[in-house]
Amino acid sequence: MKNSLRCFASTRRVILAVLVVLFLIAFSDSIFALQLKSTGRFNRKGVVTAISAGQISVRHYDGETNVYKIQDKDESAMAIGGAIGRNPAEIMVKGSLSRDLAQSGMLVRLEAKMTRAGKSVKPIKTFFAVQGDEDLRVDAMESLEDNTELMFTVVGRVIRSTGSGLLLQVPKSRFARNGRMEIKVDAEGTMEIEMDSLNRVIPGDTVDSMSGVTYSNGDNVIKTIEITMSAARKKIETVDSWHDQLVQKYGYLSDECVACRLVKSQHFHVYTDISELQAKVLLAKLETMHSLIKRYFGTQPKAAIECYVVQDFANWNGDTSITATARTAIENQSGVTISGSGPGMMSVQSGVDGIGNRSRSSTLGSVYRSTTPRATVYSCDNHDIVQHEAVHAFCMMAFGATGPTWYSEGMAEMGKYWRPKDVSVNIDPVVIDYLTSTPSKSMVEIVNEEQITGDSWQAYAWRWALCHMLANNSNYASRFKKLGISMMKGQTVDSFYDAFGEVENELAFEYDQFLKNMSNGYRVGLCKWDWKTRPSKLSSKATSKNGVMARKGWQATKIQVVEGQSYDFAAKGTWQLSEEGDSVSADGAEDGSGHGRLIGAIFNAYELSEPFDLGKKGRFVAPTDGQLYLRTDDRWNEIADNSGQLTVYFRLSKKK
Predict the structure, then answer these.
(1) Can you give the pTM of this predicted structure?
(2) Average confidence score pLDDT of the chain
C-alpha cells in the first residue's frame, strides 16, 4: 500500500511570536515613542461599562464614556497604531464580597481556631482569595485553651461551599488525614480580594483612579488603575478567560509536571508529561472544541485523535515514538500534525504530491489527500497550539484532507479560539490591532495558491479573519461550509471565486466592514448586511415606517434618499444599552454623552457614507443618493447585550 505523510506545521501561538519580536526589540517600552507622540495625560474616575482582552470601557462621572487600552499582567505585549511593544499597567483590584461567592477551585487563605484534630471550632469572619500559585499549607500558629485548641493559618483550594462554610483541599497531615478540611464561616462573613490583574473585573465595578497617556493616533493607554469590585455581583467570574475558569474548576488537582503517561477523554488519547491539572484543562478544551467542530461540519473522525504533548523531554525516558520532525517542532515551541498509514511514509510539502506535481483538487492553494486518513498531533505544552493542530487532525481523519493553506490554517486558528456558547471575536489584542491598523489584505491575496503553512503569524491572522467572517455571517456561511467540505473531500470544486463570484461585491463590502469595525466582543451575526430590503423614493404624501433594533448593526430602511433632499423624521420607543442599563430614547443617554443616540448613514454602490446624527425628532438633508440605514450609536463590540427597538417614521420635508 502506498503510504504518504502530510505535515501541517502551525505558526507558534501568536503570543509566542510576539515574544520573539519583543526579544529582538529589547527595552521596547520606548517603541511607541519612536512612532507615536504623546499628546497629553489623563487622570479619571468612573464605572466600568465593558471589558475585554486589551481594553476597558469606563463611564466617567461627567457622563462621558471612553475606551482605554491596557496591558494586563498576563499579556506579553500591546499594540498602538501598529507598533508592538511592552506597556504593562500597574493594576490594583480590591473587593469585600459575600462568602457565598467562593467557587470550586478558588485558592483561599485564612486564619481559624481549630481543635488539634483539625476540626473548626468557631466561625471565621473573613477569608482572602489568593492570587497566583501559593502553596497549599496548614500551619499551627499558637496554642489556645490549655493546648486543646490551636490557631491555624490555612491555604487551601475550595472544593465546595457548605451550609456553614467551606470545604477545602489541603495537604495531608495529622490535622487533615484525608487532605480535606471544613472551615466554619460566619453567615455574614466576607471574602476579601486584592489582586494585580483585571481577570475578575466586570461591568459595574468602580474605577477609583486611573491615569495614563493619550497618543497622537487617539489611543488612550492606561498606566495605573485602581478598581473596587462591586459587592452586588452574583458570582465571581473571569472576563474572556475560559482557561482561568477551567483552572479554577479543576484547581484541586496537582499542577506538578509528572512522568509521561496516557490520559484519555472520549475523543482524544493524549501521551503527555504535563501536570494532572493541565491535562484535565487541556482535555476539557479539546472535547469542547471537538463538539463544536462536529456540530459545524455534521460529522467526526471514526477514531480517537492521538496526541503527544511535551513539556520536558527529560520526562519521557528516551521514548522513541516522537519522530525527528515532530521533535524539532516541539523543541521550537511549536507543533506538527502528521498523517499517514504506517512506517515508510513519504514527506509531502504544501500543495505538492510525492512526485512534485501540483495537486489538482483545488486552484486555491495547497491540498493534500491521504488515502488512509489517520493523523497524530505532536505539540509543545501550549494549549492553543495543541488545539490548532487538533483541528488539522480532525479534518484529516474526517474528510481525508484539510483543504488549501488559507482554509486549513484559517479554520485551525478559528478552532483554537472557539468557546462554548460564544461566537464573538475573542483573540489576542495584538492581532486585533494589527488587523485594524494596517492596510487590509484583499481576499484574492489571502486565498492565493502559492501560500505555505508556518509562514507568519500575520498571514495566519488574515486567514482567521476571512474564515471567521464567512463562517459566522449567514449571508455566506452555507456557501463557505459547502466549499470547505468539498475541498477537504477532494470533490470537484471550481474555486473560491466560483463559489462566491455572484456575491463578490457584497462579500467584499462586508469583509471591509468587518475589518473596519472588529474588536474583541464583536458579533459578526449581529452586524451582517441586509441585502434583501429594497428601497424606493418617498412620494410627497407618503410616510415610511421603519423598525430599528438596538442589538443589531446597520439596518436597512425602505427609503431611497436623494442627495440634497430634506426629510423629516420622528422616532418612538426606547432601547437599553446593557442588560441592567436604563432605557433611553433615540436622543441617547440623558447625561449629555449621546450614547445610544439614533444615527444614520447612506449606502450607495457598495460604499457607506459617514454616519450622521438623527435623534428623536428632527430633519436631515441627504448627503448623497442611496439607501438609508439606521443603528444605535453604540460601540460595535458592545451591542450584544443591547435590547429594545425603535419605530422611526420618515417623510419628505414640506417646502416653505
Answers:
(1) 0.79
(2) 84
